[in-house]
Design a protein that fits this description.
14% strand; seven-stranded mixed beta sheet; alpha+beta
Length: 312
């Protein structure tokens, strides 16, 4: 970039344009460099060789090349802050500053990720809660389990639907003379309640057994029958009209078949287990294809997502 203009003095010492330019840049501020450098350049070109004899170098540095290098080093050290290029090296890997910067970046990344995750979790939870409330509101409008019942339990005590409000209940409709299906379903119901009882964080489930054969299933027959299943199982019976009203409320189909020569008969009926929440609302049902573990898991999920509508 410099391009030397060589001039020869009478004493045959080589003086270069670089020496004078370096002297100007080392002794004056940057904003005066351009004007004075151009002026000095013109003067050197116009002056006779004899006029250059007045240029004196510092004692001990008569070599223009050495003077140029000396002034260049001074200029760079004095005006380094005005340079556009990098003048300092970054922190070495492993130094305290580098570790601090790395820790700061990691902390910012973690906080940013946690913020996004927290926002996603909050939005997801709000959406699930809204869907759950909408589902419960829809269940309130469903004409299943909306009515009341008044029946006798297997101890002869009058029971109504309000007696079981505030508790999770599992309902099954059957009859004591059922040869195989009813015992199997009540065994499965007993297993479901036992599985749920093993989780102390879950509320207790109350199993109920409604007869669809009030003519044969009186209080004594129900008391004897329920002993073979879960100890909390309550058997409910009543008059034909009371039983029909309770079954109609849950859309239970029941029809007695023809009697044989011994007077025995089979009752064809709906084979479902009904889940009712603490508000007394029908929540779900399970057919014969569901086993005890699947039913227990479904009930557990309903319990965890349950939002009560009524406080009384």
């Amino acid at each position: 970039m410099l391009g030397f203009l060589r001039l020869r003095c009478p004493d045959h010492h080589m003086v270069t344009w670089c020496v004078l330019r370096s002297s100007i840049q080392a002794s004056l501020p940057p904003f005066q460099h351009t004007h004075l450098t151009q002026t000095a350049h013109l003067c050197l070109r116009a002056a006779p060789p004899s006029g250059l004899s007045r240029l004196r170098l510092p004692e001990g540095q008569r070599d223009p090349t050495l003077l140029r290098d000396h002034l260049t080093v001074q200029r760079r050290s004095q005006y380094a802050p005005y340079s556009q290029g990098p003048t300092q090296q970054g922190p070495k890997p492993g130094s305290a500053t580098a570790k601090y910067r790395l820790q700061t970046r990691l902390a910012v990344t973690v906080l940013f990720g946690a913020g996004i995750l927290g926002t996603w979790w909050y939005v997801r939870k709000e959406k699930q809660d809204k869907l759950q409330r909408e589902r419960i509101e829809q269940l309130r409008k469903v004409a299943i389990g909306q009515g009341d019942f008044s029946l006798l339990d297997h101890t002869g005590q009058r029971r109504t639907k309000s007696d079981f409000l505030g508790s999770w209940t599992l309902l099954y409709f059957g009859f004591t003379h059922c040869p195989d299906i009813c015992p199997e379903e009540l065994d499965k119901l007993t297993s479901v309640v036992t599985i749920l009882d093993e989780d102390a964080s879950l509320p207790r489930v109350q199993p109920l057994f409604f007869t669809v054969d009030p003519e044969r299933d009186d209080v004594v027959a129900m008391q004897k029958y329920v002993k073979d299943f879960h100890p909390r199982l309550i058997g409910l019976t009543g008059t034909p009209d009371e039983i029909k009203l309770a079954g109609r409320d849950y859309r239970v189909y029941a029809s007695a078949g023809p009697k044989d020569e011994d007077g025995d008969y089979i009752v064809d009926h709906t084979i479902l287990i009904y889940l009712v929440n603490p508000d007394g609302l029908f929540l779900d049902y399970y057919n014969r294809m569901k086993d005890d573990k699947q039913i227990a898991e479904s009930i557990r999920n309903h319990m965890k997502n349950f939002v009560r509508l009524f406080t009384d």
